[in-house]
Design goal:
By secondary structure, the chain is an alpha/beta fold. It is 32% helix and 20% strand. The protein is built from seven helices and eleven strands.
């Protein structure tokens, strides 16, 4: 287990090495700290579910670095394009049908985020495939607002902690776009989401 500051030289490269080896990274996002692992590998996803003590029926979201990567792993319909550009990137998660990801991420649909956080964006872009983006806390426990909080939950189960200081955000708002747009979890930027859906 290693703890490094977010502004450490080569921090993204260090995270990629961990992810390539099937390890787990705690990293900062636009909202909270997240547990990151290779979202294309069922064994890595299984590990995240076990660490969070999460029911497999409750999906785990993923982080992609760009709309290009989103289109590579999600079924983005032409009617989605305008709304997606209003919602992403940032503090909103969208549920779409997916391809090329570990099937145990979700029994139905995958929740995708594109970060504005520069380190998260760089890390996923360099890894060149999605990583898990679920908050760094066991199910039912409050999110750790800093690396110490995440460490108190997971300790040596995490291979690399990236310390960006306290993050006092709230969970992202989740919008299901597989049919008519529907908010399935109210969170950050909720008012922005409502306006975007009404204008769509």
């Amino acid at each position: 287990m290693v703890v490094l500051k977010a502004d450490s030289l080569g921090i993204a490269d260090r995270a990629i090495l961990v992810l390539d080896e099937g390890g787990v990274v705690v990293y900062p996002t636009d909202t909270l700290y997240a547990l990151g692992a290779d979202a294309t590998r069922p064994d890595c996803v299984r590990q995240i579910f076990a660490m969070k003590k999460r029911d497999p029926e409750h999906p785990i979201s993923v982080m992609v670095s760009s709309f290009r990567m989103l289109r590579s792993y999600a079924e983005v319909m032409p009617e989605h394009e305008g709304l997606l550009k209003k919602l992403l990137p940032g503090k909103v998660t969208v549920v779409l049908e997916a391809r090329g990801l570990a099937r145990n991420l979700s029994p139905s649909g995958i929740a995708f985020r594109i970060p504005l956080n520069p380190l998260a964006a760089e890390m996923v872009d360099m890894f060149n495939k999605p990583i898990t983006a679920t908050s760094a806390n066991p199910t039912g426990e409050p999110p750790g607002v800093d690396v110490n909080g995440a460490f108190s939950y997971f300790g040596d189960l995490v291979d690399l902690y990236i310390d960006a200081g306290p993050l006092h955000g709230e969970p992202s708002t989740v919008v299901d776009l597989r049919d008519e747009p529907e908010v399935v979890r109210k969170g950050a930027d909720y008012e922005k989401v409502l306006k975007a859906i009404k204008k769509n």
